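In response to the reviewer comment on reproducibility (Comment 2.3), we provide here a single inverse folding case reported in full, input and output, so that an independent group could reproduce the run without further information from us. The C-alpha cells appear first.
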C-alpha cells in the first residue's frame, strides 16, 4: 500500500486485530452515510473503494427500463443505448459518478463517527467469536478495578467481569492481584462484548484437578461429578479406568500435595474426594463420607429416594454443618437422601413390628407406585395386611389395583422387604436388650481399621481436607471396623452395618 489512506487502513486494522477489508467496508459505509445526508435525495447511491487511487468513489445507480417512472433511479432503454450502445439492455444497472469533495466538514464528521462505530462492532464480533468457543476454559487475569461489587479482570487486550454472585465469599482481592477463573458465558452488549467469569462453578474445580493430576489429564482417571458450595466445601467423584490405579489416591497425591495446591487456590475450601460407582448404594455410601454408614435402603427407585441409617454419634457428621454434607452428597449422586439415627430407626421399626404382631400391617406398610384410589380398592378387596398381599396371586393383585403384572410383582417384593426389615430389626432389638441385661466386655473397639487424615495449606501431615484413608491407601470410602475383639460383638457390628438394597 502506497497512498496515505491505505497505510492508515493497514495500521488501524493491525491495532484493532481485524482484517483490512473490515476497515475498508467501514469507510465505504461512512462515505455513503455522509453522502445521503448531504444530497438528501432518493437516488440509489453506492460507494466503492479504489485500491489504485486510494479514494472512495461515489455513484448514483440507475436501472434500465422501457418506460421511466422515477428519473432518479431509472433510465430509459433508448437513453442508455445512446450512452453505451447496443450493450445496454433492460434491467441492467448504470453507475453515474458523483463528486465527494463537496460533502463538507459535517459530512466528514459523520463519516468519522460511522467508521469508529463499524470498527468497534467488528472488534466486538471478533472477540465474541474467539471467546464463545472458550466457554468452560480456565483463564488467568489481573484485577483491574471494582464496579459495584463486580470485579473487572484484564485479560490482555480484552476485559472480563467477575460478578459478585460468582465470587467466593472466602476470597478478597485488591487491584493488581492475579486471578484465575473459568469462562461461563460470552454475551453481546451495546457497549461491547461481555465475558462472564466465575470462581464458584464446579467447572473451575474440575479444570484445576485436570491441571494438577496427570492421571486425569491423560484419561486414566475421570471425574464423574463435582459439586461445590464455594468457600466452604466441595465433593468430587472420581473413577479409575484401570484396576491397578487408585482414583482417590491419585487425586490426593503423596501426603496430599496435589489436592493441597487446589485448596490453596480456593482459599482453604475443603474438598472431599470420593470414589464413583455405578452401584447407587455404594456411591451414596461413599458420597456421605467421612460419616460411617450402617445401612442404605432404596425407598423409591423411580423418584430416586434412599434412606441412610447411621450411628447416633455419626448423625451430626453425616448431616454436616447446616446440612451441608448431606446436601452436597445429594447433588453429587442425584438421589434424595433421608438420614436417620440408629435410635430413630429402632423406634420406627419397633412401632412397625408391633403393628405386624397386632395384624395392622396396612397401617405401616408403604406401597410405592399406587395412588390413594388404588389403595382404597385394595382395602375394599380385603388386601389390607402384609400376609394377604403376599398370599394373593399376582394376577388378582394386578386386577384389584388396576396395574400390570410387572408392577404387581414389584409391590409384593416391596412388602416382602418391609416385612424382612421389620423382622431383622426386631431381632436386633431383642439382641440389644439381651446384651444390656447381660453386659459383655467386648474389648477395645476404637475403629483401628479406619484412619482419617486432613489436608490443609502448609501442613505436610494435613489437617483439614476431610479425606479418609483405609489402611495404607487414600480413600474416602466407608470401611467396616474389623478389629472387634469379641466374636458376638463383631457379628452384631457386621450385621448392623449391612447394606440393604431392594
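Designed residues, in position order:
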Amino acid at each position: 500500500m502506497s497512498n496515505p489512506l491505505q497505510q492508515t487502513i493497514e495500521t488501524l486494522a493491525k491495532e484493532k486485530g481485524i482484517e483490512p477489508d473490515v476497515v475498508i467496508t467501514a469507510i465505504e459505509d461512512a462515505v455513503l452515510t455522509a453522502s445521503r445526508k448531504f444530497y438528501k435525495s432518493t437516488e440509489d447511491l453506492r460507494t466503492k473503494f479504489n485500491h489504485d487511487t486510494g479514494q472512495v468513489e461515489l455513484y448514483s445507480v440507475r436501472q434500465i427500463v422501457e418506460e421511466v417512472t422515477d428519473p432518479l433511479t431509472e433510465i430509459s432503454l433508448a437513453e442508455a443505448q445512446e450512452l453505451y450502445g447496443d450493450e445496454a439492455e433492460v434491467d441492467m444497472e448504470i453507475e453515474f459518478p458523483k463528486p465527494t469533495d463537496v460533502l463538507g466538514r459535517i459530512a466528514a464528521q459523520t463519516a468519522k463517527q460511522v467508521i469508529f462505530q463499524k470498527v468497534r462492532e467488528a472488534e466486538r464480533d471478533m472477540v465474541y467469536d474467539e471467546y464463545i468457543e472458550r466457554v468452560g476454559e480456565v483463564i488467568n487475569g489481573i484485577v483491574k478495578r471494582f464496579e459495584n461489587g463486580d470485579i473487572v479482570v484484564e485479560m490482555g487486550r480484552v476485559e472480563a467481569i467477575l460478578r459478585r454472585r460468582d465470587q467466593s465469599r472466602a476470597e478478597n482481592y485488591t487491584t493488581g492481584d492475579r486471578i484465575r477463573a473459568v469462562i461461563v458465558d460470552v454475551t453481546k452488549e451495546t457497549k461491547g462484548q461481555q465475558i462472564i467469569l466465575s470462581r464458584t462453578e464446579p467447572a473451575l474445580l474440575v479444570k484445576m484437578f485436570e491441571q494438577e493430576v496427570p492421571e486425569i489429564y491423560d484419561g486414566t482417571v475421570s471425574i464423574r461429578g463435582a459439586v461445590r458450595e464455594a468457600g466452604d466445601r466441595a465433593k468430587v467423584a472420581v473413577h479409575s479406568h484401570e484396576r491397578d490405579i487408585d482414583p482417590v489416591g491419585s487425586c490426593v497425591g503423596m501426603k496430599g500435595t496435589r489436592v493441597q495446591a487446589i485448596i490453596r487456590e480456593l482459599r482453604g475450601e475443603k474438598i472431599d474426594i470420593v470414589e464413583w460407582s455405578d452401584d447407587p448404594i455404594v456411591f451414596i455410601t461413599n458420597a456421605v463420607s467421612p460419616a460411617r454408614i450402617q445401612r442404605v435402603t432404596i425407598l423409591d427407585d423411580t423418584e430416586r429416594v434412599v434412606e441412610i441409617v447411621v450411628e447416633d454419634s455419626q448423625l451430626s457428621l453425616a448431616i454436616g454443618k447446616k446440612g451441608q454434607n448431606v446436601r452436597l452428597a445429594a447433588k453429587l449422586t442425584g438421589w434424595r437422601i433421608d438420614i436417620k439415627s440408629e435410635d430413630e430407626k429402632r423406634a420406627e421399626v419397633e412401632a412397625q413390628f408391633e403393628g405386624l404382631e397386632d395384624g395392622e400391617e396396612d397401617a405401616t406398610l408403604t406401597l410405592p407406585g399406587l395412588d390413594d384410589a388404588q389403595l382404597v380398592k385394595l382395602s375394599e378387596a380385603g388386601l389390607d395386611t402384609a400376609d394377604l398381599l403376599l398370599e394373593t396371586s399376582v394376577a388378582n393383585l394386578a386386577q384389584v389395583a388396576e396395574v400390570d403384572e410387572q408392577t404387581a410383582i414389584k409391590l409384593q417384593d416391596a412388602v416382602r422387604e418391609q416385612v424382612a426389615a421389620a423382622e431383622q430389626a426386631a431381632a436386633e432389638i431383642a439382641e440389644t436388650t439381651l446384651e444390656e441385661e447381660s453386659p459383655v466386655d467386648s474389648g477395645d473397639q476404637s475403629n483401628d481399621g479406619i484412619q482419617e487424615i486432613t489436608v490443609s495449606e502448609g501442613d505436610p501431615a494435613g489437617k483439614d481436607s476431610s479425606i479418609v484413608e483405609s489402611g495404607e491407601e487414600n480413600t474416602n470410602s466407608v470401611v467396616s471396623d474389623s478389629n472387634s475383639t469379641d466374636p458376638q460383638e463383631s457379628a452384631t457390628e457386621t450385621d448392623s452395618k449391612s447394606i440393604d438394597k431392594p
